[in-house]
Amino acid sequence: MRGRTETLGVADVTDGLTARLAELADSAAIAAIYNQGIATRLATFETAPRTPEQIAAQLAEKGARFPTIVVECAGRVLGFAGAGPYRSRPCYEGIAEHSVYVDAAARGTGVGRAALAALIETYEALGFWKLASRIFPENAASLALHDRAGFRVVGVYRRHAKLDGAWRDCVIVERLLGEAASLSDQ
After folding, report:
1. Distance (Å, rounded) from C-alpha 186 to C-alpha 165?
2. How does strand 152-163 pair with strand 76-85?
3. N or C: which terminal CB in the chain sees fewer CB atoms within 10 Å?
4. Could you report the per-residue pLDDT of 98-142, keeping only the tens digit for each?
5. 32: exposed, middle or buried (C-beta count within 10 Å: 0-12, 13-18, 19+)?
């Protein structure tokens, strides 16, 4: 595994953007971007803003097994992609459930694409065989991003949970990695 401050292989996906492993010092920037996602009500069921201290604790807890990727330009973090365990049963240890968040001012600039590409590369190198996510159907940008990155729609969880008192659906997406991706579906 690369050192936490080394640039990942997908660096400079778009002019001036660099993808790298997150450090504890990135916690404030990650919290600010995540809190934008909470406020829009398009990216998560979470409703309470996160503090930098909560994000730092989460990064430390996930450690090297579930690293977070940040994308920066000129030293400013503009987006991130993170993951965690899909389920606790040992048979699922190679599946990670992920999310991607981009600062509102940087949306549409390739930050999300760089973050997701680096996440795919990093988790494949760690031996994961699948990345999965749940995306609100109204989040057209995230659905398009995942489609361009080779994810497939598996289905829809109808009325998956309530957000602000209203039932919300989730589109389930997945992408196979490593050996699982190389197998024929026949």
Report:
1. 44
2. unpaired
3. C
4. 999 999 999 999 999 999 999 999 999 999 999 999 999 999 999
5. middle
